[in-house]
Structures are given as structure tokens and as C-alpha cells.
């Protein structure tokens, strides 16, 4: 997928997450101020030593207020009574060398050592959505009673971790629903699942791992709620910078009694307004949450959030929840939902038939590009056409991990058509127009083949239904207000005359001039065309892609 755009290190907190009291509830600790220093920890010992320097202008927050470090990297933050954590919004040049958040405590010292990293080059990150982790079918059905695990998750996660580590990512984002479910099982079991998933990913993945809270990660008891998630992964909303991109993680789960509403809360909204207000208008912004906007509750907070994201002009809103790969909107901002690590809840591939895997994104020179990787499997993704029913024309977009030297596509058992291959340094992709206007109505298979530089051939096949309306030239010309400036098709025309690079052709209702056709045409040849209808032009249907011209066999 490609679009033109107008670290929590897995906050695992091994010191707190793995010693979690499973009945944990955060307790407000009265503290007037948090003090500390943000510094580049050159020797990696977690202590500001002689010769190491503080980092100026770094944002530090408790989820309510935001402050900035001074020229020596020192900060003082007046703590809110509701604060559970103090966290650093890591800059593009720094990655937390221990942890990026510290639980609030009366005697805590809030120092954040950073490892100096490069801020140059494209941003690459992996999104792992909807793990729904439980180690075995017996425990899984305690959470999701209407599902039956058929695939054990641990071998899949091992394959995914290995693939993530070969993907060259700057960070990983877990986009929510980390555990099978937190509504029905005992909280201590939920804690075990969350810790197991966190430990597996934190110890296996080489890059920083950040997390989003999902609806299945919330215990439906207000005395617990998100406490297990927070004890394992840290703050439920936060931000960080990487490669010049400002990344924001939001919590769209609000619990009232035992009822969960998909919305942010007023405190989170106020914090987000502060967070975004400190940015330059030129700073690209990525936002992560669990639910797509179409599932958001109609609350004042969500309405204000949607408006805010629109006004600041984010690069994209990225989420999961649907277990499906789909571009939900391109305006007023790009919104992409990614498929699930667990496919269809560990019963089989995802609802869109993608395998157990993750999506890799790259942001480079104003473009957001992405591809799907199935863990441990060499496969390709056909992201377009995204519609099941095709009419006249569509676009083919496909990608494969690794470098391909050639790519072709074919319909059914037809001849293969070559396509130019783009290589972005990580994966190969193709994009071309498809002409289905001359195909027989009915079901057809589209096969895409990538010939890799290492000798492998990787193929992906999708099925579509073609249904072409019969609209004559006479119909088009008699309803100019409908067709003018739009794409039209004339799939069966007879050539009347050849006049150099131009021809005249008719379909028994009207004769038209067609310009810039392929050479070698003769009178009585049967052709099909797709183009833009310009009724005032000498050649009223402008063919703008060679794929939109068909010469019928004799």
C-alpha cells in the first residue's frame, strides 16, 4: 500500500510487570513535584556521569501536565493527584536505554537515560495488532467463550519475532487486544497472559516496543480496569518522536461500571491538545489507537478529537480491532486498519484471508508505504483491487517482502502482463491500471507473480466478480451531464477508417474519432477502449493508459 501524505520500549518494566500483584489497583500518591534529568547515557550504566550531557527541550509528562527539560536536561513537574506515571517523550535523537516511564512514588527520582541514535533516513516500524494471547485452547476459551483456538500462538509469535528482527524497524507498536480477553477470566489469569505476551516480545524483539490498550485488555471491574495493562506496559496514552515523526498513542477504552465505551476521556483530550500545541506546524504526526473511527462512540470528546486530528493534518491514524487490512478513509486524514496477529482468533486466517502476521510501514519523503508480512511465510499482498465486484477498470497494487527483479499478472489462464517493480530497500511493489471492460461478466482469478532476485517465485491469487454495464456511445453522448469528465468504456467498437495515428470507430449508435491508437490497425478491426469523456474534443474519449486499449482477436 502506498499513499501520498499532504520508543515505549515495551514499557515492559520488568521490575514491575513481572512482579505484578494480580489484584493490583493504582493508588494515588500525593507528591508535589517530580524532579529528574534526561541525559545521554554514553556508557549505558543508567547514571549521569561526568562527561555525559543532559538533553535540552525534551518533554516530560504525567499524563495531565507537560514540562520541558532545561539546558542541562533537568526538569521539575508538578504532579497531578491522578498521575500513575511520569514519562519522557523521547526525542528523535534518543532512545530510552532503560525505561521511558517511571511509576509515581513518594520517594521516586525520575531520571531518564537515553541512548544516542540517528534521526536520519526513512522511518520504518511494525504494527502487531490483536494478538488475543492465551497459551493454549483450554485457557483461551475462558476468555473468548464463542471461539475455539485451532492454532497454538507461541510458534506463530516466534516466527513473527524473527521476521520483525529482519525487517529493520525503528520500533514496534502493539495495537491492542494483547490478551485473549479480560472480561470473563479471573484477573490473575489475565495478568499471566499479559506478562507472558510482554515477556515474549520484549526479550525477542530487538527494537523498542510500544503498546496500545485494546478493549479485550480491560478488566470489566472499575476497581481493576486497566491496572493490569498499566502494570505491564505503562501509561495508557503518551507520545514519542522518531526520525522526525511525532507518534501519539491514545486510549479509546473508557470503563463505567462494567460497561466499556470506545472513546477518549476529557483528561486525555486536554493532554493531547497540550502535546500537539508544542509541535511545529511542519512536524509529521502519526496517531495510534485500537478501534477505527467508525466504531468510536458519539461523545463530545471523540468529536473534539476527530476535529483536532483533522485540523493539525496528521499523516495517518493507524489502528486494528477489525482483524482486517483496509484503508478506511483518505480524507480528512488517512486511516488504515491492519489485520490481526491471531488471524480469526487463532481459528484460521483473518477475515480477509491474510495469514498470521503484521504490517510494516515506511515513511519516506512524504510517502507512507506499507506491506503485510505473514510470520515465517513467503507471500505477497494484493491490496488493490479492494472491491469484490469490478466494473470497466480498477488499479492493481501488490507488494512482497524482499527484492524482486520482475513481476507479472494474469487473469484466469490468460497471457501474463509485465509490470514495473519498485524497490524501497525493504520490499518490492507494483502499481498499474487494470482493464476489465472486455472481460465476460462473472468470476475471475487474478494471479500476481514476483520473481525474486534470489531465484524464488512468490505468487498471490485473488478472486473477483466482473460486471460491466452496457452503455452505448449514443447513451454517453445523450447524457453529457452524467459522463462529462469521467471515465467511460466502449468495449466493442468497429474501426471504420484509419487516418495516421487517428481512427474513426462506431458501435451502431455513434461514430467517434479516437487519437493516438497503436499502429497496425485496419478497417473492420474490433477494438475496446477506456478513457476520459470530453464531449467538446475532436477525439471525445481520451485513452490515457495503453492498458485501456484492446484489440479483439479475429
Written account of the structure:
The protein is an alpha+beta fold and 554 residues long. The protein has three domains: 2-374, Purple Acid Phosphatase, chain A, domain 2 (4-Layer Sandwich); 380-466, Immunoglobulin-like; 473-551, Nucleic acid-binding proteins (OB fold (Dihydrolipoamide Acetyltransferase, E2P)). 15% of the residues lie in helices and 34% in strands. The strands form eight sheets. It has a six-stranded mixed sheet, with helices on one face. The chain has a six-stranded mixed sheet with strand order 13-14-17-18-20-19, with no helix packed on it. Strands 32, 33, 34, 35, 36 and 37 form a six-stranded antiparallel sheet that branches. Strand 30 and strand 31 form a beta hairpin. It is elongated, with a radius of gyration of 28 Å. The relative contact order is 0.10. Mean pLDDT is 93; it is low at 2-30.
Amino acid at each position: 500500500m502506498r499513499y501520498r501524505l499532504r520508543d515505549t520500549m515495551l514499557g515492559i518494566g520488568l521490575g514491575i510487570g513481572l512482579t505484578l500483584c494480580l489484584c493490583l489497583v493504582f493508588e494515588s500518591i500525593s507528591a508535589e513535584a517530580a524532579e529528574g534529568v534526561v541525559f545521554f547515557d554514553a556508557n549505558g550504566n543508567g547514571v549521569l556521569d561526568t562527561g555525559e550531557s543532559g538533553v535540552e527541550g525534551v518533554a516530560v509528562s504525567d499524563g495531565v501536565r507537560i514540562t520541558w527539560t532545561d539546558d542541562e536536561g533537568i526538569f521539575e513537574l508538578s504532579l497531578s493527584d491522578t498521575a500513575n506515571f511520569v514519562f519522557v517523550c523521547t526525542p528523535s535523537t534518543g532512545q530510552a536505554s532503560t525505561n521511558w516511564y517511571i511509576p509515581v512514588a513518594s520517594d521516586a527520582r525520575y531520571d531518564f537515560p537515553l541512548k544516542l541514535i540517528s534521526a536520519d533516513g526513512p522511518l520504518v516500524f511494525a504494527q502487531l495488532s490483536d494478538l488475543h494471547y492465551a497459551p493454549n485452547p483450554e485457557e483461551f476459551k475462558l476468555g473468548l467463550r464463542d471461539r475455539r483456538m485451532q492454532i497454538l500462538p507461541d510458534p506463530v509469535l516466534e516466527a513473527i519475532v524473527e521476521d520483525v528482527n529482519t525487517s529493520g524497524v525503528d520500533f514496534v507498536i502493539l495495537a491492542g487486544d494483547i490478551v485473549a480477553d479480560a472480561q470473563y477470566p479471573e484477573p490473575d489469569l489475565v495478568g499471566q497472559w499479559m506478562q507472558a505476551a510482554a515477556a515474549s516480545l520484549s526479550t525477542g524483539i530487538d527494537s523498542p516496543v510500544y503498546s496500545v490498550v485494546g478493549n479485550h485488555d480491560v478488566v470489566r471491574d472499575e476497581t481493576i480496569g486497566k491496572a493490569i495493562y498499566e502494570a505491564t506496559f505503562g501509561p495508557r496514552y503518551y507520545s514519542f518522536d522518531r526520525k522526525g515523526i511525532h507518534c501519539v498513542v491514545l486510549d479509546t477504552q473508557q470503563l463505567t461500571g462494567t460497561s466499556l465505551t470506545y472513546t477518549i476521556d476529557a483528561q486525555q483530550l486536554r493532554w493531547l491538545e497540550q502535546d500537539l500545541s508544542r509541535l511545529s506546524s511542519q512536524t509529521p504526526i502519526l496517531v495510534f489507537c485500537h478501534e477505527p473511527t467508525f466504531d468510536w462512540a458519539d461523545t463530545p470528546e471523540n468529536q473534539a478529537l476527530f476535529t483536532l486530528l483533522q485540523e493539525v493534518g496528521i499523516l495517518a491514524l493507524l489502528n486494528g480491532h477489525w482483524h482486517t487490512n483496509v484503508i478506511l478513509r483518505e480524507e480528512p486524514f488517512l486511516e488504515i486498519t491492519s489485520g490481526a496477529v491471531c488471524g480469526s482468533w487463532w481459528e484460521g486466517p483473518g477475515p480477509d484471508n491474510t495469514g498470521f502476521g503484521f504490517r510494516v510501514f515506511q515513511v519516506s519523503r512524504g510517502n507512507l508505504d506499507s506491506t503485510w508480512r505473514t510470520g515465517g511465510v513467503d507471500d505477497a499482498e494484493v491490496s488493490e483491487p479492494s472491491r469484490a465486484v469490478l466494473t470497466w477498470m480498477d488499479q492493481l497494487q501488490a507488494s512482497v517482502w524482499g527484492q524482486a527483479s520482475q513481476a507479472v499478472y494474469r487473469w484466469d489462464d490468460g497471457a501474463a502482463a509485465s509490470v514495473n517493480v519498485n524497490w524501497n530497500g525493504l520490499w518490492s511493489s507494483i502499481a498499474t491500471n487494470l482493464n476489465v471492460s472486455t472481460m465476460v461478466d462473472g468470476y475471475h482469478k487474478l494471479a500476481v507473480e514476483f520473481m525474486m532476485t534470489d531465484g524464488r517465485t512468490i505468487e498471490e491469487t485473488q478472486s473477483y466478480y466482473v460486471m460491466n454495464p452496457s452503455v452505448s456511445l449514443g447513451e454517453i453522448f445523450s447524457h453529457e451531464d452524467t459522463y462529462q469528465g469521467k471515465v467511460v468504456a466502449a468495449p466493442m467498437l468497429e474501426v471504420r477508417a484509419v487516418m495516421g495515428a487517428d481512427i474513426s470507430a462506431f458501435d451502431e449508435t455513434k461514430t467517434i474519432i479516437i487519437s493516438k491508437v497503436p499502429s497496425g490497425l485496419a478497417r473492420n478491426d474490433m477494438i475496446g477502449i477506456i478513457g476520459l469523456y470530453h464531449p467538446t474534443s475532436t477525439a471525445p474519449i481520451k485513452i490515457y493508459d495503453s492498458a485501456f486499449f484492446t484489440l479483439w482477436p479475429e
